[in-house]
Amino acid sequence: MVKAWYMDNDFSDQRLEHHRNPPEFVSLDDLYKKTGVEYFNININTFATDGVLDKIKKDRGYTYEDEIVCSKECLPNYEEKIKSFFEEHLHTDEEIRFVLDGSGYFDVRDASDQWIRIAVSAGDMIVIPSGIYHRFTLDTNNFIRAKRFFIGEPVWLPYNRPADDMPCRKDYLHKLEKGFVEVN
Ligand SMILES: CSCCC(=O)C(=O)O
Ligand SMILES: [Fe+2]
């Protein structure tokens, strides 16, 4: 089950939890209000037939999907990829991940540029908005398998910080200011 917390400012091993002292947890509601990150809990044993994931895909227009395995054995250019996932960056589209097995940390910046660490494991699906600065790391288990989704043809290109002049960054800051209210 997903948990999120504010990180300490210690630059030791990125795979450790990096809690503050005392720990400062962030609820899923607060995570959304502070960052726009959305969360879905999916049953990993029944998702192929229970319709929950299918509804999310349909509602949100996720037309592309594949799977990524991050481990020394399975990920080509492992060291290089792990390093680039952890460089602070943003994308012009949402980053959608549904964890099937293993675990890891997605770190996102809040409005005051503080890192919030989101610990994901099997059954956790997260949507990282376009334009938010973020990064990913494996934890000490060194393994994650996840589905990736995309609206249309996938673009995995990261724009490392600073990318403040990008339209998607400006859009994100605008939504953040408005508190992520949906305007239909
Ligand atoms: C759990 S997915 C691995 C990380 C990743 O795909 C990314 O950071 O883009
Ligand atoms: Fe990313």
The tally of strands reads: 11
**What is the first-to-last residue Cα distance?**
31 Å
Return the average pLDDT rounded to an integer.
Answer: 97
Structural class: alpha+beta
Molecules bound to protein: 4-(methylsulfanyl)-2-oxobutanoic acid, fe (ii) ion
Description:
The longest helix is centred in the last third of the chain and has 12 residues, at 167-178. This protein has five helices and eleven strands. Strand 6 (95-109) and strand 7 form a beta hairpin. Strands 1, 2, 3, 4, 6, 7, 8, 9 and 10 form a nine-stranded antiparallel beta sheet that branches. A two-stranded antiparallel sheet has the order 5-11. The protein has 184 residues and is of the alpha+beta class.
Name the features.
two-stranded antiparallel sheet, 11 strands, nine-stranded antiparallel beta sheet, ARD_euk, binds fe (ii) ion, binds 4-(methylsulfanyl)-2-oxobutanoic acid, 184 residues, alpha+beta, 5 helices
List the SSEs and their pairings.
Blueprint: E1 3-6, E2 25-26, H1 28-35, E3 38-41, H2 47-50, H3 52-60, E4 64-70, H4 78-85, E5 89-90, E6 95-109, E7 115-121, E8 124-128, E9 134-138, E10 144-150, E11 159-160, H5 167-178
Antiparallel strand pairs: 1-2, 1-7, 3-8, 4-10, 5-11, 6-7, 6-8, 6-9, 6-10
The structure holds 4-(methylsulfanyl)-2-oxobutanoic acid (KMT) and fe (ii) ion.
Q: What can be said about this structure in brief?
A:
This protein has 184 residues and is of the alpha+beta class. It is built from five helices and eleven strands; from the N terminus they run ββαβααβαβββββββα.
